[in-house]
Amino acid sequence: MRLSEIALAASLLVLTGCASPAATTGGPPVALSPALAADARVRNIEVATAVLYNMPLPGFSEQLRAALNDCATGDRPLDLRAQVEQPDRERLRVTVELVDPGADRSPVGRYEIQLAEAAPLVRHVDGPPQSDVGSRVGRRLCAEAFEPQAAAILQGLDMMSFPNSLRPSRAPGRQRPPDWGFVQPSTYGDEHYLTRMDEGREDWVIGLRIIRREPEGVIGCFSDKALNGGSYRTRQAIRIVVDDAGGYRVAENDLNEPTCKPEPGQG
Question: Which fold, 3-146?
Fold first, then answer.
């Protein structure tokens, strides 16, 4: 057997039904800090498996790396440890830990990704078995770890960095929405909201929808509305970047975006 054939056989053995030693340390989910997510790239990938019902996942590591290369494009290297398990024949569970190689090797991020209808093998008549599970896991990890979602951005948004209803009430110690009591989350479609309550009633709501992601930041649609009987209601497109405190700030506001036009007579 040639050396290349031995290497191929070994790689397939790692991702078959045979259990291998756990690669992850275990524990609750841990989100990457916004600053680290924006500046990270994945260096080494280590994968271990539990029972996979004798269904190999050819190309898993390569597909995972290819997907992450599209979203983790920073300069700070992180190592990735993944534990692949199949609780039953229809589901796949992948626990991923992101590790700072320059620290004590403890995870700086931990995510659990569940895939329903795993169907890990796609057989072709004239070729070897193929699988897209690595790509699917990579895309999910990109969305959860390296591409912050609207909920996380809105929660950490510096409200003093752009014009909005809260800016006139500037006060020491108040910067992010929770500082003003915006702690009730909700989601409608692809827009995330935070609502402030007053004596048990909805008083005010702010929202954010991500329009697209660019190298210079996230383009989002920010909404701002009174629920207490007032007429205040605005909407504006903003460019959001990571700030020095590890949260988010607005670098540009009132952008011209067709899907985020100002409210009629807003203000």
Answer: Rossmann fold (3.40.50)
